[in-house]
Amino acid sequence: MNVLSIEGLTVDFNTAEGQVRAVDDVSFVVPENRTVALVGESGSGKTVISQTIMGLLPQMASVTSGKVILADPSGAEPPVDIASLERKGPKMRHLRGNRVAIIFQEPMTSLSPLHTIGDQIGEAALLHRNVSGAEARELTREMLQLVQFPDPVRGLDTYPFELSGGLRQRAMIAMAMICHPALLIADEPTTALDVTIQAEILKLIKEVQSELRMSVLMITHDFGVVANMADEIAVIYHGKILEKGTAEQLFSNPQHDYLKALLHAVPSFHMDKDERLVPIRPIELKSEDLTSNRPHCDVAPGEPLVEMRNVTKKFTLRKGSFLGGKTKTMTALDQINLTIRRGECLGLVGESGSGKTTAAKAILRALEVEGGDILYNRGQGLEDIANLKGQELMDYRRRVQLIFQDPFSSLNPRMTINDTLTEPLEVHGVGTPEERAERVRNLMSLVGLDPRFLRRYPHSFSGGQRQRIGIARALALNPEFILCDEPTSALDVSVQAQILNLLQDLKRDLNLTYLFVSHNLAVVDYVADRIAVMCRGRLVELGETRTVVGNPLHPYTKALLSAVPEPDLSAPLDFAALDANRASEPHLWPEPFQLLEGMEPSLVEMEPDHFVCAPGLKNTGALEGTAA
Amino acid sequence: MLYYIIRRILMMIPTLLVISLLTFFIIELPTGDYISNQIAALKAAGEQSSIAKLEFQLKEFSLDRPFFERYLIWVGLWPGPHGLDGLLQGNWGWSFEFDKPVAEVIGPTLPLTVVLNFATILFVYVVSFPIGIYSATRQYSWGDYGFTFLGYFGLATPNFLLALILLYLFNRWFGLSVGGLMAPEYIDQPWSFAKAMSVIAHLIVPTIVIGTSGTAAMIRRLRANLLDELHKQYVTTGRAKGLKEGQLLVKYPLRMAINPFIADIGNLIPSMVSGSVIVSVVMSLPTVGPVLLSALQSQDQFLSGFILLFVAVLTLIGMLISDLLLAVLDPRIRLGGRASS
């Protein structure tokens, strides 16, 4: 029996520029107790479909034709055509949150900060289940238990800002589940979360689904998630369904070129070293104009370019009541020893809060460190960057640049692209105005953008284009070392492949060195020569990419790797293994990896060129690593 | 929480000291003082007789002492001619212009000022909230445009002009006496029901006049704040739960949107006192505003100093109230410390 049947759905937006068709003649069904994945890039219309089902379409959108029929499998109510209901009317309200529920992408913003979790979850029960306040509270507690809140009773009275992203998303799921809906729409439910938490949330959705016999419509662009969750798949592009079928059919035998291209754009662990992703819209690289006019780099390839020695950084947190009486410090970097060699790409991996961005900022000298030294070789041997002043510091800044994570907030909306790209040149006084203009045009063509776009403002570009502008800005000064802080985590897979290839080509043609910070192991595996894994401010594993990914030694690295959903039906996530290892707690790691408060996180060379943080092995004869 | 309140109140003491010093400094900025000016004027006119009395007053109010000594005597931390006798001891000073103690000059106007201000604030909130909410939820509707137009009209019309027009209309339509806060026959009469009714009737026009621009500004701000909140994700979450639009609006976005207004209470009070001076003069309202104006003009320093300090105290109290209300209403402020760990 089909819980949801969409037939010939067409949705138009009435904008100032005329009618825009967001969804064009879409038909698919969601059977009972099954998961259907709706896959597509941003702007493909997948969210509009979810809004149509929820009756949450914006005012300027209208359903031009088609039916959205919701048939309750319990048979308590006759099937209804949602498309024909008044969006704000009582009939639609009766369905919303009751028979159809939704979880959103951003757990940070989808809960009200002023109300307790218990209040917000129980509200749906009060609205639809005809219960008293006390009963609603009891139901909420049961739901929190179902979504595995650590302490459901306490959880009732916590506010969203007191919870981590993963717990907030659990609360969202509890909210959606409390009325036992027939259909759950999950709109990119894990995109904003770390891989380990993503795996837990996916597991949770599966468990809740089987417990409540509910149908799930999973909206995502991540094929790893699709492969692990979906029974059936519909691929959507520009508002049209290009291909649909069971997961087996689509993964083993994709028919449509678009789906094939999408599948090729996803990095996976099984790729060969020199295999390239195939982006849907590749960029041709013209780098010949850019190699002139750069500070001379005398460091031979393979020699240490950056060295972090026992770098320690602590942050002071306010703690306790809002009087701010007591303070507490958090160690963001705990005696980090790391060397980045000229011409390599070092991948720095870890969950949010592991200190990887702090490490990048420390190298940029955007943060002062409390202990240890950061050394950089400007051709005259390794120098401590903390001692650089004036002209020397300006020279260092020219050599080291940063690409930001969020292409939307890292460009000033009030500056044209031309201003954005010229600014670093002006700051460093490079060239005459004519030369700057020439260079900016070259930069644009280098990242595959039309130089005519220079007069535009950031809002007229897509996420991928903005990220390319960010890369062009980082390249403006012809740096030799670039810190990439999760440059693709905000982008679609197809665009991600494009950006990753661009970064690789630039590295090859311009002899760049990268520190590539990411939480996505598959991406790091694709771009990095060596991988460093961080957890809670400590470096826990370091080695060649192949070695670390193929033979992880540290329990944390193992947990991270096992949590990455692969876009491959034959390698599903091992959900059963997930709850056993709470692998991000250093004091819970098994010997010899256990790391207690105050212990020095020393690296031990367990295999040639493969260092692991294992304090228990330090004195047992194994070579103590200097983390070369 | 109790500890926090006590700490906040203790913190107000040094703040007040600094404010009083600044106030005193600014008031003394113009050269000379009320008495020296009078002496100079008398000397120029060739009258010697009353100079002796004025010079006695000069000593009496220690105006011949150095600046800091004068300040400390005013506050009551330094012995003056009569020992410690300043603000701290409850002596609010002497008004040269009215030739009365400041307490007697201000005394009768204070309650009326407070009543008027309270009525105005109430008016502003009561009128602007429904209109602001209406404008935000029906953005770009005819109603929204209408209120926007009225709002700009209210902002652009000079208050005194509006005051004159309204006074005329109320006089023609309801036979209300022009000016003042009560009908002439009740002035200096003991309080009675009829007198209270008269005060209420006379409050209407000044409340509307003083409140118009505040209301217009508030409507615009509430509309903007609410529009920001209405598009936030948590509102969609609430809607997806099946909440009715009205319930949804009150429970989520409105709660968020009123935060700036609570934070604003502290700022409202001084602007109500000093902002309504012109209107009070035009309508001859017996409030503090006109008294302050004349005191500043004639360098009646103890009177103006006291009024300015009084406004500062009101501001501090207002700030305290807003902070406490914010802490009660917004868990992020109340529990903020716990969040980051």
Blueprint (SSEs and pairs):
The complex is a heterodimer of chains A (628) and B (341).
Chain A: E1 2-15, E2 18-31, E3 35-39, H1 46-54, E4 61-70, E5 80-81, H2 90-95, E6 100-103, H3 117-128, H4 133-146, H5 152-156, H6 165-177, E7 183-187, H7 195-212, E8 215-220, H8 223-229, E9 232-237, E10 240-246, H9 247-252, H10 257-264, E11 304-318, E12 327-341, E13 345-349, H11 356-364, E14 371-377, E15 382-384, H12 390-399, E16 400-403, H13 417-427, H14 433-446, H15 463-475, E17 481-485, H16 493-510, E18 513-518, H17 521-527, E19 530-535, E20 538-544, H18 545-550, H19 555-563, H20 575-578, E21 603-607, E22 610-613
Parallel strand pairs in A: 3-8, 3-9, 6-7, 7-8, 13-18, 13-19, 16-17, 17-18
Antiparallel strand pairs in A: 1-2, 1-4, 4-5, 9-10, 11-12, 11-14, 14-15, 19-20, 20-22, 21-22
Helix pairs in contact in A: 3-4, 3-6, 4-6, 6-7, 7-19, 13-14, 14-15, 15-16
Chain B: H1 2-27, H2 34-45, H3 51-60, H4 67-75, E1 94-95, E2 100-101, H5 102-106, H6 109-137, H7 142-156, H8 159-174, H9 193-230, H10 233-240, H11 245-251, H12 253-257, H13 259-263, H14 265-275, H15 277-282, H16 288-297, H17 301-329, H18 331-334, H19 336-339
Antiparallel strand pairs in B: 1-2
Helix pairs in contact in B: 1-17, 2-3, 6-7, 6-9, 6-14, 7-9, 8-9, 14-17, 16-17
Mean pLDDT of chain B: 81
Strand order of the largest sheet of chain A: 16-17-18-13-19-20-22-21
DSSP summary, beta strand count of chain A: 22
Question: Strand-residue fraction of chain A?
Answer: 15-25%
Low-confidence stretches of chain B: 337-341
User: Pairing-aware structural class of the strands and helices of chain A?
Assistant: alpha/beta
The CATH superfamily of one domain in chain B turns out to be: MetI-like
Helix count, DSSP H or I runs of 4 or more residues of chain A: 20
